[in-house]
Amino acid sequence: MGWDTGPDAGGTVALSLSPTRMQDDLVRYESFVIEDVMAMSVDTVTPDTDLRARALERLKKKRDFKLHLVMYVMFNALLVLVWTLNSPSFFWPVFPLAGWGIGIVAHAFDIYARKPSEHQIQREIEQLR
User: Is residue 111 left, alpha or beta, with left meaning phi > 0 and alpha meaning psi from -120 to 50?
Assistant: First the structure.
């Protein structure tokens, strides 16, 4: 469902069921957000604002990882159930378990691994200049 809160909605919230309309609404919302961010001057971005944005980004990554892990467990449990009911001789679910497991480990490493030090970040910035 798409929400329209733009100027053409007269300040009211309109609900549409069209996937095309939903995409248009999302693009419109993103453009509003981008305009708001672009309108901020360097003076208005404080360390607290930066920390808040970084904290929100980390929380989103952690939430996404938890969802990824839940989907991995649920889907692979279904595969093991199918294996149990149909052909319990060769454990073929090991292949998707291992393949997707590599992705889970990489995703976890991206979120929970040690972050680069400030010295490493500064050195990279200098190399880019």
Answer: alpha
- Global pTM value: 0.55
Residue 99 vs residues 70, 91, 102: alpha-carbon distances, Å? 16, 14, 5
CA angle at 65 for the pair 61 and 69, rounded to the nearest 5°: 175
User: pLDDT per residue over 5-22, tens digit each?
Assistant: 555 555 544 444 555 666
What is the Cα–Cα distance from 23 to 2, expressed in whole angstroms?
Answer: 8
User: Does residue 94 register a pLDDT over 90?
Assistant: yes
Count CB-CB contacts under 10 A for residue 14. 14
Domain range list for the chain: 2-39, 58-128
> CA-CA distance, 94 to 79, in Å (whole number)?
10
